[in-house]
Amino acid sequence: MRRQFTIAVFEGDGIGPEIMAPTVALLRDLARDAGSFALDFRSVPAGAGHYRDTGESLPAASMEAARAADAILLSAMGLPAVRYPDGTEISPQIELRMQLGLFAGVRPVFVQPGQDVPLKSPRVTDIDFVIVRESTEGLFASHGKGVVEGDREARETLVITRAVSEKLFDFAFRLARRRKAAGRGKGLVHCVDKANVFQAFAFFRRIFRERAAAFPDIRADAAYVDATALAMVRNPWDLDVLVTENMFGDILSDLGAGLMGSLGLAPSADIGEHHAVFQPCHGSAPDIAGRGVANPMAMILSAAMMLDWLGDRHGNAEMVRLGEALHRAVADVLADGRVLTADLGGSAGTEAVAAAVATAVRIPAAA
Ligand SMILES: NC(=O)c1ccc[n+]([C@@H]2O[C@H](COP(=O)([O-])OP(=O)(O)OC[C@H]3O[C@@H](n4cnc5c(N)ncnc54)[C@H](O)[C@@H]3O)[C@@H](O)[C@H]2O)c1
Predict the structure, then answer these.
(1) What global pTM score does this model have?
(2) If both were cysteines, with which of 164, 241, 283, 294 could 15 make a disulfide (CB 3.0 to 4.6 Å apart)?
(3) Three-point CA angle 214, 217, 221, nearest 5°
(4) Are residues 122 and 253 in the same domain?
């Protein structure tokens, strides 16, 4: 009996639809040949283009479709020229994060052979770690609530709650456990904070230590955010899972994407207790939109993370295997080096790269 999973698809703006179409086609092919599951894709409107055309950025029906789906696949959203009357940009992905309680922002950082990266070290291909960024509170809890008193002073307030921190740390420890079992991780979680200066971070670290006791098979350590930024450049191959507050995670994630050499390779997931959104780290790249030259790899790697998450959540080993196969196929195309987009030094188009990934998928037999 094949279990059917509904996937809400936000095609997004700019290069969004260009990288989403071949990714959905790849997933359709994998699902068609799968024995244990089927995928039902539902395209849902939202984004800057939709706001420009209709006055709505995230229609209630789209929000409902996202809530009802088993997983959400989202391409980049936003266009610099399309803004709300207050001057801010259209970012439905932030509303989804808040409304669906997606507290764990997962940002993998890895380097495959063939990747042109800024660090020059023979150990560079040993880089394989994950940043887990708390995504619903921290300094971002102050979004829209900041106070500017006259022209003299401004204030924003950081919020750390026990309820969200416990869920966040448990998520990070379980992730480290899965990575270790898969032979990818060291079984190590670092709490990244500024506990030497701020009470809120001492509280954050205390909860981390409490939750660590429930995962005796995983090493737990703590590090200050400034030292972590240095470690990410000096010895990133020693890292495994970094769990941190929202603002720190925001900054370290971009440093992580920088280590990977191209935004076009950096996937991400925003995960909550009941819902999850999978999307590339990059934006809608209006400078190259409409030309068919965008790199689809980050989108495809995000889709691989979605298969892994669905498989883990629903005890479906075939989905986990296919997620891993898709991830490896991207690595093989990169290592081969013949079919790459311009951001990686090649001259191939989006469709050609996606086709090369599809050809490279090798589905391992069940264990
Ligand atoms: N999560 C999201 O949906 C998200 C994230 C960041 C920015 N945005 C939005 O995207 C729009 C553009 O933002 P930006 O220009 O600052 O960032 P961007 O990530 O869209 O582009 C930065 C640079 O990277 C290149 N690039 C990005 N993705 C690429 C890909 N897949 N292949 C090849 N090159 C790629 C672009 O061509 C550009 O030169 C803005 O409206 C912004 O708000 C959305």
Answers:
(1) 0.94
(2) 294
(3) 80
(4) yes
Convert the pLDDT of each residue in 257-277 to its tens digit. 999 988 889 999 999 999 999
What spacing in Å lies between the alpha carbon of 20 and ligand 1's midpoint? 15
- Is the shortest distance between the CB of 105 and ligand 1 below 6 Å? no
Residue-wise pLDDT tens digits, 175-222: 999 999 999 999 999 999 999 999 999 999 999 999 999 999 999 999
Rounded to an integer, what distance in angstroms lies between the CA atom of residue 347 and that of residue 293?
8
Distance from the CA of 180 to the center of ligand 1, in angstroms? 33
Residues in the chain: 367
Ligand 1 pocket test, candidate residues 52, 282, 288, most atoms within 8 A of CB? 282
Q: What is the CATH number of the domain that holds 176?
A: 3.40.718.10
Rounded Cα gap, residues 107 and 49, in angstroms: 27
pLDDT confidence tier of residue 367, bands split at 50, 70 and 90: low
- 111 within some domain: no
Ligand 1 atom closest to 297 (CA): 31
